[in-house]
Specification:
About 25% of the residues lie in helices and about 35% in strands. It is α+β, with helices and mostly antiparallel strands. The protein has one domain. Strands 1-2-3 form a 3-stranded antiparallel sheet. Strand 1 and strand 2 form a beta hairpin. The protein is elongated.
Length: about 110
């Protein structure tokens, strides 16, 4: 019985923490990559969060608006969609991204 209660409390804590926490750096990098060609082979070398604003999604879930800057690279280059990026190409970026919680603790 004690183990069941402890397990329930632990699971509840994890769920509440994931719903109330902010996106991780990995979530932010994943979102940045989605906006680039050959995103499956690109790599975010650095990211700096310049500004964070709390907001909400259309359905009322927690969301964040980030102004970020950093560097992205394509170690193996890219020829997708007629694009020709040489291996080792790097670009600097500064952009605004939005990450919303889907209600299950995932940031998209």
């Amino acid at each position: 019985m004690k183990k069941t209660i402890i397990g329930f409390l632990l699971a509840s804590s994890i769920i509440l923490y994931s719903c109330s926490g902010k996106p991780s750096e990995a979530d932010i990098k994943k979102k940045i990559l989605l906006e680039y060609v050959c995103n499956e082979t690109a790599k975010v070398n650095s990211v700096t969060i310049l500004k964070t604003e709390e907001t909400e999604t259309i359905v009322g879930n927690k969301a964040y608006k980030y102004t970020v800057s950093g560097e992205i690279s394509w170690p193996d280059g890219c020829t997708e969609y007629g694009t020709r990026l040489e291996p080792g190409r790097t670009d600097q970026f500064e952009k605004v991204i939005y990450l919303g919680n889907d209600g299950d603790g995932n940031w998209q």
